[in-house]
Amino acid sequence: MREFTINAFDFHLGMQASERFGFNQDTDRDGVQNELSPEQIDNIVMYQATLSVPEKILPTEPDILQQAIAGEKLFADFKCNECHRPYLALNNNNWVFSDYDYEGNLRGEVDLTSSLLLGKRPKVVDGTVSVPVYSDFKLHDTTEGVDSQDRDALSMRTIPGSDEFFAGSSHFVTPRLWGVGNQPPYFHNGRHTSLREATEAHAGEAHKMRDSFLESDSADQEALIIFLNTLQVQQPGRVN
Ligand code: HEC
């Protein structure tokens, strides 16, 4: 995360972290030296590492709550969970986040299950933390075929400029569904603005699951969408 952060500041904001670009240097010649100190990078990394985690925001209206519960079951019945695996199991203390600099010095460490952090945090149960990611982190082709508007015109996982790169791609990593209820738009291209539209846009490897959704009655369809809407990430600082 430290490396990603330092890259992003350089690419997007034209600000160079001293620990990478050198102290008392002005490598981009904008007249400013020491644009980001190691301590500032420490703080930005820790801020990101401790951002709110996803949770289910359940409806308070009893009828709608029942629909949300039914919808979660339908998510499994329709086999959506074959790709959108509900939980990622962390063990071996992998919920402790450690931040190292380029020289391998430990800059900071935080237990992400700590109750001292803001908002709800996942708990350790029998040595495991179950993170509700709803992804298998694998590549799948969920497009209608070569003419699909959901294909990527460029294949980002190949060498830029190569034939494969320009051939485009229909394979996408199953996105995590945490936060899907309050973080539209959907798909890699942001082409789908509602959860129903995103669900209906599944084809290819997911066409059977999509058809199960489409062939179910309207109450079941609504229940599934209500369930997806419960998967939210709240703003940092929200007190539950
Ligand atoms: C074969 C694997 C697979 C199955 C089965 C599957 N999905 Fe997906 N899902 C994906 C992939 C891959 C994407 C991203 C496609 C893209 O970005 O172009 C996606 C995207 C989504 C999104 C949008 C998420 C976002 O942030 O962009 C939602 C919502 C979703 N799926 C719900 C469902 C539901 C509901 C079902 C069952 C009816 C289902 N999925 C079945 C692989 C799958």
Descriptors for this entry?
single chain, about 240 residues, alpha+beta, Cytochrome Bc1 Complex, Chain D, domain 2, two-stranded antiparallel sheet, 8 strands
Explain the overall architecture.
The protein is α+β, with helices and mostly antiparallel strands and 240 residues long. The protein has a domain at 55-87 and 132-240: Cytochrome Bc1 Complex, Chain D, domain 2 (Orthogonal Bundle), CATH 1.10.760. 32% of the residues lie in helices and 11% in strands. It is built from eight helices and eight strands; from the N terminus they run αααβαβββββαβαααβ. The strands form four sheets. It has a two-stranded antiparallel ribbon. Strand 3 (96-100) and strand 4 form a beta hairpin. The two termini are 28 Å apart. The relative contact order is 0.16. It binds heme C. Heme C binds at residues 78, 80, 82-84, 140, 142, 150, 172, 174-175, 177, 180, 186-188, 195, 198-199, 202, 205-206, 209-210, 213, 224, 228. Residues 78, 80, 82-84, 140, 142, 150, 172, 174-175, 177, 180, 186-188, 195, 198-199, 202, 205-206, 209-210, 213, 224, 228 line the site of heme C (HEC).
Task: Compile the SSE list and pairings.
Elements: H1 2-13, H2 18-21, H3 38-49, E1 55-56, H4 62-77, E2 88-90, E3 96-100, E4 106-111, E5 129-131, E6 139-141, H5 163-167, E7 171-173, H6 195-200, H7 207-215, H8 218-230, E8 231-232
Antiparallel strand pairs: 1-8, 2-5, 3-4, 6-7
Helix pairs in contact: 4-8
The structure holds heme C (HEC).
CATH superfamily of the domain at 55-87 and 132-240: Cytochrome c-like domain
What top-tier CATH class of the domain at 55-87 and 132-240 fits best? Mainly Alpha
Q: How are helices and strands ordered from N to C?
A: HHHEHEEEEEHEHHHE
User: Judging by the overall fold, what is the CATH architecture of the domain at 55-87 and 132-240?
Assistant: Orthogonal Bundle
What molecules are bound to this protein? heme C
Q: Gyration radius, to the nearest Å?
A: 21 Å
Secondary structure category: alpha+beta
Alpha-carbon distance between the two ends: 28 Å
Low-pLDDT residue intervals, each spanning 5 or more residues: none
